User: Fold these one by one.
Assistant:
Number 1:
Amino acid sequence: MSWRWYWLLLLGGLVLWLGCAREGFRGGEASIGQFDLPPNTYVIHVSRSGVLAYRPLRESEPGSKGGCAGFACTLFRSPSPGGELKPVSVFEQVNHVFATSSFPFVWARKPGEKNFALYFTRDAGKTWELVPGTAGEFACPPWLVVTDPTEPQRAYIFSTPGSEALAYLADLGEFLSLKDYLETQDGGKHWQVKSLPGQVPAGADGLLFDPRNAKRLWVWRGSMGGTWTGVQESEDGGITWKKLNVPAENRIFGLAYNPDTDELVAVGRNVFSSWRQGIGEDLRAKGGLEKQEFYAGAPYAQPWFDPARRAILVPVLCYPEGDQRRLILFSFRQGEVERLAELSLDKEPIYTGCSEGHLYVATTGPHGGKLYLLSLPRGS
């Protein structure tokens, strides 16, 4: 298995994370329940519509030889957490699962069809819709899917050269053109061809749009090597880029934006920083993290904008001692950091998500995993 698929499996589905653990939450949040998962099952989406997951095919199983870079999988869904996960029969072959932060995308082929295509679901895998104009005979998708942590109904699809699946934007290894990309603002009901005059710098790990100004966008890079690291901003649709002096002693894994307050939060390995009113600030001391080893952002999860609190929520995974892991959820708004919840875990989460006021976390393993559900109070 290549390194990119290791990270993809660890990501499960990008998105927005937090959960509950066997010790429960501190701070009064009520756990709804916890449920067993079958062995080697990776949850990628949980909502009121149900649970969507996948299991990688073993080399001996039909379809594994026709996978993308050695990866193919079977999709499973359940109409509710705790229900039986049953195979999704819509597809004959699924070769790529995109780690997105909202509605899931897959590169798959239906029975009787020659070509693969991009498909997405708005109801946890009950029904699937085709992204128009994406069909092709390649085993790997020549597309990059970028979803919006600020507006979950928005997504962007970019054409990439060649036929090699990208677990990260940085895998492209060259500039990404911003001309003629697809955009949806309503969860895939309608798609429009959009175009910007510039391009994404080579080696960028991620891309984030300002939802109120398409010509303003940010990229980040935390990967080792290359010609640059940190955060860059463009205000002219990618023609020119400038570096933002966001404090980051180690690798940046993700970025989130608050459109209400015009604030950015950058997270990563021992990175919890902000960019506000033209000034970068290290937030570790405000969060009590200055003396701890921690991770935030990919490969675990990305921060996201919470419309209920009008704040950016930042999940952080700490390693205080031994094999124990401590998960802390922070809220950031107008320069202030608030610790919302804390829990203990004995495994690293492979999926965390938020939907309709509920928070979820899933783990996996060769002997099975767990799906935890909890409810948080509404934001003020």
Number 2:
Amino acid sequence: MNALTYLPVDSVISELSQTAYGLRYKITSDAKGPFFYGWALGSFLLAGARCGNPREVDKRLEKSSQIRL
């Protein structure tokens, strides 16, 4: 998801990046826990903003008391 988070240089989101975004909870260890390793939570929030999905940020903030980093 680097193209969505830390290197968003393209004006159009590629199909590969959209697929990675759609699978983000499946391909990230313990993300449904709620537990996030390293930069995973930040990546999810940045990718959600880049994909025009403000609900991603809202969803994480609502559960912020449960999140373990």
Number 3:
Amino acid sequence: MKKLNKSIKIGLLLIVLTLIPDALIGLPEFVTGLSLGAGLALLLVGAFTINHDMSKFKRFKANILKNIFQ
């Protein structure tokens, strides 16, 4: 089994930290949906990066951030 990357770890943590309080005290639906969606997206990105090269995406993201903050 390959090592888990940061995206997968953060996604799992976000999902767990959403489901436990939701089961115990009940969170608003918007908060639950938003955090579960973000956690699932991070899991999918992490799973994609295990087998694919993300250098093009990182350069694209860096260029966009550089253009925004100039």
Number 4:
Amino acid sequence: MKFVLLPLVVLAVIATSVIWVVALTKSEPETPKLGAVGGEAATSLPAATSGNDVLAPVEEISVGKERYLSPCQLLPRSSVESIFGSLDPDVRLYETYLDSSLPDPRNDASSVVTSCDYYGDWGFSIYVRQMVEPAASGSELIERIGFDTDEVEAAMTAFRAADVGDDPAAAALLAHLEDGYKVFQRPRNATLAQVDGLVVAGFGDRSGGTRDFALIVGSRIIRMSYEADVAPDADVVLSQFARARAIVLTNANDPSLSQAPSLSFGASDTLGETQLLEPCAVLSAETFEKMTGAAPNESVEREPLPLALPDPTSSRAEYGIEGSCSRSFDGFSVADDTALTKSEQRYGRRGSVYVVFDIAAFPDAASAQEEIAYYLEDEDSTAIKTDADAAVLRWTGSSYVLHFRTGPYVVDMRVRGDTYADGEYLDVNLTRTQFVNATNLLVKQIKGQS
């Protein structure tokens, strides 16, 4: 069994705008071609329903023998703000989530990590590691927490000196931490039953204000982190995480907890007269497969639209409200005894393809046209004829990026594809025809959802 982790975002800002892409050479390649779109007419896809439930799974998702837990549902934004303080309205959420169950012959991972990260003046992160293959012992789960001994000792030294006499919840958490510390120090013979419910704290070295807590629930590891320039006093930290732990434990054991990713906007939400669209509904799994020829088999990366929308007449709205979605196929994740499809064979078992899709909503088509005009006038851009109102391929010096406008929406899309042959990785690129057909496919999706 190969040990493969799905894409991981843990306790760090995801910079989706800084993604290295292996893309087209300046001359248009003929082979190998990327996906089923090349040379074919784009086909219409079923329209998705805009709104908060658009990414909710149709069927319940499981990981191994346990129910999948969506990190952003375990401790939703409302709870984060009630415990740690208000987030700036412009704060961005970065998220990785699952939209299908594991194990799956198309993903041979032994565990999977999903995450939910808020970053503003201060940051809060929660990630969940779930085991596809059951852990053999409690010591294995403790090792996977990832804390160093000195981090845990630093946390315990600070918390033992805290004044929690007037806070029963904080005092109870400190007692649980003492119990967890004893097991953490001597984990060798720990059983699964002994570590179920264990909680351990660590003071990370990323900054002076970082405070980490890890819980074990069944065979899931749930890790929470608060990060600021200066951390609150130890008694405040204990009080905050006592509340967070109680909510997380309640939600983790709730069989009706939503498995959807975080909520972003309502079905009636608009920017001016422009309907907001969910990026990962436009770049759905089906859309990805039609563009690339490979069915996505990794976790989904998402930067949804902000919850707080600007006045459509404001200068901020003129620059558009943007969200992002990334999907990928990794041939190495496919089980050895599972055949690749004909289209996937162009990447092979050591190749991959990754699509980064950004969509910005503007108050009106005129504002969107001003945005795309910048690329139309760029000397490194080439206009292409598509079903979009305007579309260009822009050469960045090492790759092409697709930019197009349809109505009040502007899309940027980057693709990275590779295959392994003769001891080296080779680029697998979109041709201009394939970019055209991918644009037409996405335009149909956008029009069907707006």
